[in-house]
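Quick note —
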Amino acid sequence: MSDQASFRAQTLIEALPYIQRFSGQTVVIKYGGAAMKDEALKTSFALNVILLREVGIYPVVVHGGGPQIGRLLERLNISCEFVEGMRVTSPEVMDVVQMVLVGQVNTSIVGLINQHGGKAVGINGHSGLLTQAEKMQVTRQASEDQPPEIIDVGLVGKVVKVNPQVLHALEHGRFIPIIAPVGVGPDGESLNINADLVASAMAAGLRASKLVLLTDTPGVLDDKGELITELTRAKARELMQKGVIKGGMIPKVNCCLEALEAGVESAHIIDGRVPNALLLEIFTDKGVGTILEG
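Predicted structure written out below.
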């Protein structure tokens, strides 16, 4: 037997206990960043998700689409601004958000997975009232001696409730749910929700075994820029207070912490630029990112 064949066999053996442990459990995956842009990474992701389903794990995919929304808004000469990292969403912008996320991005992911032999179904917050939401209120503290300023960010939402029955029905039929992060408000209106928040809420509502966020970074880094492979909830909060975890990583870590507090066993922030990142994180000893638990 060649060294390459032996290595492949050893890889399968290493994966076996993880397959046995997580078979029959749900893994919620936030899909975004480079993994959604590079053709080879897109194919790798589709095959990874299909394999998870074939070995008895139930993958639930929540996708982003910010860059695609930005490009279409620019083509249509529709201006919008960002406040506290959120896209201010007027009714006109919301039409574009929904068009891109539901009509374009979601459909393309479903098509890619089905093309490679999977059984994917595209849904959004309106599907069986899957993602019930309300408008998000954003405040900004101008100075200590003044009350916080309330900022209207339009049709930007936060998740209030998820309906897991929709996803249980799809799992029973061996379908892979692909969820666009569009929520439904109390009056039936569409709301634009951050995909990380939707993924965290889905993981909590499904009591998932894992929440996995694909990012364009190696994971959570320490003050020397080195990857932190494991974090407890207490340590994560300590590193945020010290400013080690900063910038765009703060909301991702907070999403993970919320999922853990709701009963999700572990949350992972992994490098989606690595081919087969999902399988490497779930089925190998070392993984390719940061795991938060405990």
